[in-house]
Amino acid sequence: xxxxxxxxxxxxxxxxxxxxxxxxxxxxxxxxxxxxxxxxxxxxxxxxxxxxxxxxxxxxxxxxxxxxxxxxxxxxxxxxxxxxxxxxxxxxxxxxxxxxxxxxxxxxxxxxxxxxxxxxxxxxxxxxxxxxxxxxxxxxxxxxxxxxxxxxxxxxxxxxxxxxxxxxxxxxxxxxxxxxxxxxxxxxxxxxxxxxxxxxxxxxxxxxxxxxxxxxxxxxxxxxxxxxxxxxxxxxxxxxxxxxxxxxxxxxxxxxxxxxxxxxxxxxxxxxxxxxxxxxxxxxxxxxxxxxxxxxxxxxxxxxxxxxxxxxxxxxxxxxxxxxxxxxxxxxxxxxxxxxxxxxxxxxxxxxxxxxxxxxxxxxxxxxxxxxxxxxxxxxxxxxxxxxxxxxxxxxxxxxxxxxxxxxxxxxxxxxxxxxxxxxxxxxxxxxxxxxxxxxxxxxxxxxxxxxxxxxxxxxxxxxxxx
Length: 467
Prior knowledge:
Helix content: 25-40%
Number of domains: 2
Low-confidence stretches: none
Number of strands: 20
Strand content: 15-25%
CATH architecture of the largest domain: 3-Layer(aba) Sandwich
Number of helices: 14
CATH superfamily of the largest domain: Alkaline Phosphatase, subunit A
Largest sheet: 9 strands, mixed
Shape: globular
């Protein structure tokens, strides 16, 4: 392994392995060639398989419980309205670029989720992620890099703002614009700056799935035959493959190990489970008065519509569900005696996992106790992590829906959910090509990079080196 002097990680958020390694393999020559040169396959994500915290799990080799980050928004405390966004300030465990910076290695980090704001500058260059509110904020290290980016690509895009939209042509144009600017930036940085670790993440691969999956998947309930967007995802994958090929052409492959990774995959979304309406129906959640139209949970809390004296549980919306119990002595108006906590959770698990779809068919929902998933459960974990319908269904937090099943998204148009299996490709001339190996997890990425770079692997990392 001594011939590996640098590692380049090309992160493609939500990139779907069945499309890369199967359906469109012949149309993706650069990725396919990289597979032939090395090892590739599924990269099992964390539970839940969510962008936040998945990339930080990958970069630290620590699970969501150890990080204390269970999703995009997390409870700050045991009150009923204390939710906060998981910015970089929430990540207390060291991540790969921080470990390497401390050891004198030079790093280029672009767009990796969980890097805004910059609180601990890398030894090198950093451009923050989709959580950056605006490019008017300080989103680069060093700060003067911001002006260089403006001169290079014009108005840099950390994300497609408002990607849940019915204006699909606008969305498609925005995704291409963002992606082209990101790759133009990283091509400039890797050829003009010294580096030992390069790690970029492109978000367009996530946004294209959420916006266009219905047009390519005949099993999607909103599938439109002969849509002008039928090939939108395919053509974008081809474009990504071309950009990856151009990027690889700028890297000294003899001295650089290359990894292409995604934090999770993608699959069609069949619908949403109105979690809190279901909890009301099952007698776990009680309102002071009926709600006659779909109302956001934040509004329900703000208007003080929950009868906490008769409420044992409530849920949160998103690509997966989180269930919180109203425990006596823990929550302000808790009613569940601590000695009945496990009994109530077990009852909820049994009911959730028996929940069928709108036609009475089983969907395979799984409800997990955090202590069964994670080595630790830091900060305020959910009492249950709920994966509705093997991720073909999402959790809807709104209250007052006409049914517990909905086929409209409460946060705007959305065609796809995340899949548990992401993808990886690992290649370098000194590493024997092993073909397809589907056993790795995203926790293996950080120790793999450290091992390839001849650095010690911390004993508290969950993963193990692939090489």
